[in-house]
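It would be a great kindness if you could assist me with a short task in structural biology. The matter concerns a single protein, recorded as an amino acid sequence and a row of backbone structure tokens. The record follows directly beneath this note:
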Amino acid sequence: MRPGFALATVDSVDLVVRGVGGHGAYPSGTRDPVVLGAKIVMALQTLVSRENDPQSPAVVTVGSFRAGTSHNVIGDEATLLITVRSYEEKTRKLLLDGIARIARGEAIASGVPEDRMPVMTVRPNSTPATFNTDPLTGRIRSVFETRFGKARVADVPAAMVGEDFSRYYLADKAGVQSLLFWVGGVPQAKWDAVQASGASLPSLHSPAWAPDAEKVIATAAEAMTAAALDVLRKG
């Protein structure tokens, strides 16, 4: 629990890579969108590694690449589904502008006609960055340390995942305080074993993630109740 960025801005981008299809036996008469899409995927890696300031975290992940219908047919289109994550608006703009630029540039280099340039759509349901504000963060930290003990309250680095809870803060920056806190879900014995061995734990979306549900829910409910009572108390 610490002031500052807690979660990232998340944008979902659909990129339709358009080519000129034809028979798989005669690729020279086509402009293959699969090959072009693969070039775009690789070129996108340079946005974070070579264009973005390394002190400003950023992620560009192509989560889906869909194309083609048959072994021997070169199709007309390929679709890339991309997640873009950042904290700062200038970084977000750099990444989104960069995706559009790279897609068009690779299409031109591949000889795609002007009327078949890639079509990029940024979905409207972007999730803004979540921010932990002061004095609320420090105040609730003290509440948790008093209730659970200082050893059970720790600072957690900002994460690149997203959460639309941030919209409450953005709705009225002058008057709304914001705090996101995590509740651990790993059984104590398993946690201790991993810390001792240096191994890694399954991530939140992994099918192997298995929290100690009763303890997690009980602790979370107690923490939320304690925080709410402190925020709502008078005087």
